[in-house]
Amino acid sequence: MWYPGHIKKAKSKIKTYLKTVQGVLELVDARAPYASRAYEFEDLFKDKDRIILFNKIDIADEKQLKFWKDYYKSKGYKVLETSLKKVSIKSFLTKVVYKTFPKKFRELRVMVAGIPNVGKSTLINSLKGKKSLRVGNTPGVTKGVQWISVNDNFMLLDTPGILYSDIYNKKILYKLILIGSVKPEDDEKEFAIEYGFNFFKEKYPEILKTALKGDNPPEDYYEFLNMFAKKRNFIKSGNEYDIERAMSTFLKELSDGKFGKVVYDYPEDYEILK
Ligand code: GDP
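# guanosine-5'-diphosphate complex -> structure
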């Protein structure tokens, strides 16, 4: 979970870094385009040019994304989508991202931001390790901050801004657990799976079927976990199914998108959008 201390620290760090950039590239998990972007301190970015990047579209149910893209566009953001795991990141940054930011800057400096697990390090690390691309401290910007140049006029902060979503209801918490952005505590794991199971039964039964290697899912989430454990031979001593292991494995593979494409966010889930 996220503790107030973390949030305070992240917030002050981001505030310092924000002084050195003109733009912010905010990553969201396309499977939860709203829940993964319900920040507590949204106003931090209000003076910056902002792009919202729907990442992981390879594992998102694209037909559900139109509403969310239109929603962000209506709020004045530029919206892009990609799968950072599948594309050439350097070329995506120079050919798409750079061109989407307004052209008023001679040298564009951008912070990459987003909640945990949305792909920030995947993006930044792909540019690292190539010595010639590393520019170190640049005159005129905060000392000690490392920059990575993408091309002659475009640099990224090498420290991504880690944001924390505003978990103001359980549904958001469960969605964030299902996409792997929040590590569940105590019984949250089981509640998130119960939530996910009921959601899949209604909207994406094939996800459950795939998880059960082709078997039809049962009525109840607990029975589902038993079947899942049985399929994988997760047995504890005493010949019982290892439900704990089944839960962890199911969650991990689900968050990695192994069972199929999904979108968890629907406008009717949010009072504020009604
Ligand atoms: P960060 O916490 O925001 O820095 O996220 P990471 O860059 O560490 O990525 C979290 C996980 O998502 C890693 O396992 C990545 O391989 C995976 N990932 C990143 N981008 C994509 C994508 O476009 N598609 C899929 N399927 N996985 C991705």
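# post-check
The first helix runs from residue 4 to 18.
DSSP finds nine helices and eight strands in the chain.
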